[in-house]
UniProtKB/TrEMBL annotation:
One MF term in the entry's GO annotations: glycosyltransferase activity
Key word Transferase present: yes
Protein name: Glycosyltransferase family 1 protein
Domain Glycosyltransferase subfamily 4-like N-terminal: 18-191
Record keyword Transferase present: yes
UniProt-listed InterPro entries: Glyco_trans_1 (IPR001296), Glyco_trans_4-like_N (IPR028098), Glycosyltransferase_grp1 (IPR050194)
Name of a matching Pfam family: Glyco_trans_4_4
Sequence ranges assigned to domain Glycosyl transferase family in this UniProt record: 204-334
UniProt keyword annotations, A-Z: Transferase
Length: 334
């Protein structure tokens, strides 16, 4: 598998990590459990990042040097793809390990997969996770995907041997708007781990997380314009204004963005700081709790602690958060 711009080991909700990371990690783990060995190749973004790690039995994650050893905007990574592919091909030739399939995730990885087909005559399976045309259609003004992405996605629909769509609507857009061959496209909705995400006692979950026993609404997601955080805050402000005297004030628990703790207190990544500034501008400081992204191991506690999960996204190829919340028995407003 190829996932150039983000590692499946990254914590969802921080930086570029989100549902795609979860999908790749879970797909790899379950394929390995069925006897299919999986190697995942991603870009190394930290000098301390190990070059290879066994993420799960039968699953190895390789971090390849391509471009600066720092987090890099994904829209600036295309020029580093030849270096990434060269490093990947060298790694594989050195190991002498044959592969039967390339499974690429996102448009950048798809183009890397296409370049790799120069080295091996094996099928390329592409999954976009999001489509640039749909993001441009639904994103707020100013969040326009580059023409390069649109051109590459259209090209990959022709060049890939097979394409996986996460939902029927995405498949229809590929066929009718992007002129893809219907015979190449298979709709395979992602799933959810029902052993991990399941109903639990609400009060016990709140006590374990140290959350107050008051109406709680949960948001889980990356800090990205397409997630509709501006709409969420505007709606939250209106709801607070409609509360009658004596009504319990709800709390919005915001899980997204990178928050770190140090001797100097909490530190927030710039994108999250901007979101917090918007909340302050709207007078929401006392009714929004910014906890940053949380480890996946404890996400079921947050879902079970909440009375409601909100998903104001302008566009989702699947909407993993909604499915995880419903698996825990928590209603979703989307």
């Amino acid at each position: 598998m190829i996932t150039v711009h983000t590692s499946p080991l990254a914590q969802p909700g921080s930086g570029e990590a989100g549902g795609m990371n979860v999908y790749i990690r879970e797909l790899s783990r379950n394929l390995a459990a069925r006897g299919v060995e999986v190697d995942v190749f991603t870009r190394r973004a930290d000098p301390e990042q190990p070059p290879v790690i066994e993420a799960d039995p039968g699953v190895r994650v390789f971090a390849l040097e391509a471009g600066p050893l720092v987090p890099h905007p994904k829209d600036q990574l295309f020029c580093h793809l030849p270096e990434f592919v060269t490093e990947l091909a060298f790694q594989i030739n050195r190991d002498g390990r044959p592969y039967e399939l390339i499974h690429a995730h996102y448009w950048l990885s798809g183009w890397a997969g296409h370049l790799l087909k120069r080295y091996w005559d094996i099928p390329l399976v592409q999954m976009f996770h999001t489509l640039g045309d749909l993001k441009n259609l639904l994103s707020p003004k100013g969040s326009i995907e580059p023409v390069l992405r649109l051109q590459v996605e259209r090209g990959l629909l022709r060049l890939a041997d097979a394409v996986i769509a996460a939902n029927p609507d995405e498949r229809e857009v590929m066929i009718w708007d992007l002129q893809a061959d219907p015979a190449k496209i298979c709709t395979v909705p992602p799933g959810v781990d029902l052993d991990h995400f399941r109903p639990a006692d609400r009060l016990a979950a709140r006590n374990q997380l140290g959350l107050p026993n008051r109406p709680l609404v949960l948001f889980v997601g990356r800090v990205d314009p397409v997630k509709g955080i501006d709409t969420l805050f505007e709606g939250w402000r209106r709801m607070l204004d409609l509360l009658a005297p004596g009504d319990a004030t709800p709390l919005l628990v915001f899980l997204g963005g990178r928050r770190t703790e140090s001797a100097h207190g909490s530190q927030f990544e710039p994108a999250l700081e901007r979101v917090m500034g918007e909340a302050k501008r709207l007078g929401l400081e006392g009714s929004v709790l910014f906890l940053g992204s949380q480890p996946r191991a404890i996400l079921p506690l947050f879902y079970n602690a909440a009375d409601l999960c909100v998903m104001p996204s302008r566009y989702e190829s699947f909407g993993l958060v909604a499915v995880e919340a419903m698996a825990c028995g928590t209603p979703v407003v989307a």
